[in-house]
UniProtKB/TrEMBL annotation:
PANTHER family: SLL0788 PROTEIN (PTHR36933:SF1)
Protein name: DUF305 domain-containing protein
Matching Pfam families: DUF305
Chain spans, region Disordered: 355-397
Source species, domain of life: Bacteria
TM region positions: 54-73, 103-121, 150-168, 174-190, 202-221, 243-261, 290-306, 318-339
Lineage: Bacteria, Pseudomonadati, Pseudomonadota, Betaproteobacteria, Burkholderiales
Residues annotated as domain DUF305: 374-475
Listed Low complexity bias regions: 380-397
Keyword line: Membrane, Transmembrane, Transmembrane helix
InterPro entries referenced in this protein's UniProt entry, alphabetically: DUF305_CopM-like, Ferritin-like
Length: 479
């Protein structure tokens, strides 16, 4: 009997890589908002374009094969052997799961304190120094059961502080994870055993929802990823860009979905996600590792969790997998597109008068992602202006807006090129030139109707804002 069990465990060990990785291409991915320009309020790509994409359905098909095969194996002796092998490997970690989780939470807040100038993630920047010290306080509060609820309140407080500077839609990526971690701290500190036993369940749901929500960016705004893929072409593993992006989105969504399913699917999904996130560390560096530290830690805990956690009979059937996957994807899609429409496109006739002024990637050092009023664009010295709203955002016609933007550009460019240093003159002249290109693209998004030109305008905004950021950083280093 013991020799049979050993053979099963050895077979499980050999089968594991194929089960976890064979269903999908290994797609190294980072959070695009940390490394590339983006504009949250720009109209998302129509859902129909994703539904007509054969690569999207290829990804869905591969994942369904993976899930169905895994669920079928889970019912067999082989499945039991694989799960037992996982338990043997992760048993020491699971016996200290709370210590591990609290250490990682504390280490994460110490790390972002050391990075400085951010709220919770790399793209949520702040100039308030006391925010960083608040992160250090949260790290200290994690180590006592009495103060863990205060740490949880601090995490929610940081999110609310970020909400005062950033737009709600932009922050939804991080809400589920933040609530999950905060709820874990509260439940872990509770003396009520009924509450306490759900502490890792809320973590799992928080990460799963965060992954599924953020994955929709790859379908709604594939052009956000173009500069990143062009800068690091090896990320696609030789796949065409337009094939890689939808399949990466499918991988992220479905593995997040898998975290909510039966034990073997859950644990293999966690293992696959852990490998994917680790593959992003080398090309994107420590910033990516710090930003994803909490998610990666929770994924490790999910992988180590030996409990079956099949609370609903529907999860035990094979036919439920495709049905619930489609239903979950439909619900998240309707929520994402519907909420975006409610926040940014309520005034269909005016196309939201200030839409061209709002940007969640403005590179303004004081309010890096905040909206500027359309009628009062931020004014700074020539060559130093933050990338804010078009000067003519409130103009009544596209022609007036274009002419006003050009008029502003010529004055700023002329002032910039007067600098005595040739390099600085070039940069100070090119910044308003690029800003004018972005202004024109935003005016096109406000007034234009042609789908091709609207897509080109979004690509221009992404590329030009990225170059503006580089030039402003170059200037700042010489101030």
């Amino acid at each position: 009997m013991d020799s049979t069990s050993s053979r099963i465990r050895r077979l499980a060990t050999r089968a594991l890589p194929g089960l976890a990785l064979g269903a999908l291409p290994l797609l190294a991915q980072a959070h695009v908002k940390w490394f590339a320009p983006y504009i949250v309020e720009a109209p998302p790509q129509r859902i129909s374009e994703t539904l007509h994409d054969p690569w999207f359905w290829t990804g869905i098909g591969l994942v369904l094969v993976f899930f169905l095969a895994t669920r079928a194996i889970e019912r067999t002796k082989l499945g039991e052997g694989i799960l037992h092998g996982f338990d043997v490997v992760t048993g020491p970690l699971w016996s200290r799961n709370d210590d591990f989780m609290r250490f990682i939470i504390a280490a994460f807040f110490v790390a972002i304190f050391a990075v400085g100038g951010v709220y919770l993630t790399p793209d949520l920047k702040t100039s308030s120094e006391w925010v960083s010290w608040m992160q250090l306080v949260i790290a200290g509060l994690v180590f006592s059961r009495r103060t863990m609820p205060l740490a949880a309140a601090g995490i929610i407080g940081l999110w609310l502080l970020a909400l005062s500077q950033y737009q709600l839609f932009h922050l939804l990526d991080y809400l589920a994870l933040g609530v999950g971690v905060a709820a874990y701290l509260v439940l872990a500190a509770s003396d009520n055993p009924e509450w306490n036993r759900y502490r890792f369940v809320v973590l799992r749901w928080g990460v799963a929802i965060a992954l599924m929500w953020s994955s929709l960016e790859k379908f709604a705004y594939p052009d956000w990823f173009y500069p990143l893929v062009e800068e690091k072409p090896f990320l696609t593993f030789g796949m065409p860009r337009d094939a890689f992006i939808p399949m990466a989105g499918v991988a992220e969504f479905t593995m997040g979905f898998g975290l909510l399913w039966t034990a073997l699917i859950r644990r293999l999904s966690a293992l696959t996600l852990f490998i994917i996130f680790n593959m992003a560390v080398y090309p994107f560096g420590r910033l990516d590792m710090v930003g994803h530290a909490l998610i990666m830690a929770v994924i490790v805990v999910i992988f180590a969790d030996p409990t079956p956690q099949v609370r609903f009979a529907i999860r035990r059937t094979l036919s439920a997998i495709p049905v619930t996957l489609v239903a979950t994807m439909a619900a998240f899609t309707m929520g994402y597109w519907g909420l975006h429409h409610a926040l940014y496109e309520d005034d269909a006739n005016a196309a939201v008068a200030s839409a061209a002024a709002r940007s969640t990637h403005t590179h303004d050092p004081e309010r890096p992602h905040a909206a500027l009023p359309a009628a009062e664009p931020k004014q700074e010295p020539a060559g130093h202006a933050g990338h804010g709203a078009p000067a003519a955002a409130s103009s009544s016609t596209a022609q007036e807006a274009y002419l006003a933007s050009m008029s502003r550009m010529h004055g700023d460019m002329e002032a910039g090129v007067r600098h005595p240093d040739a390099d600085q003159a070039f940069v100070r002249g090119m910044i308003p030139h690029h800003r004018a290109a972005v202004d024109m693209a935003k005016i096109q998004l406000k007034y234009g109707k042609d789908p091709g030109m609207r897509q080109l305008a979004q690509q221009i905004i992404a590329a030009q804002e990225h170059e503006i950021a580089d030039m402003q950083a170059w200037l700042k280093a010489r101030d």
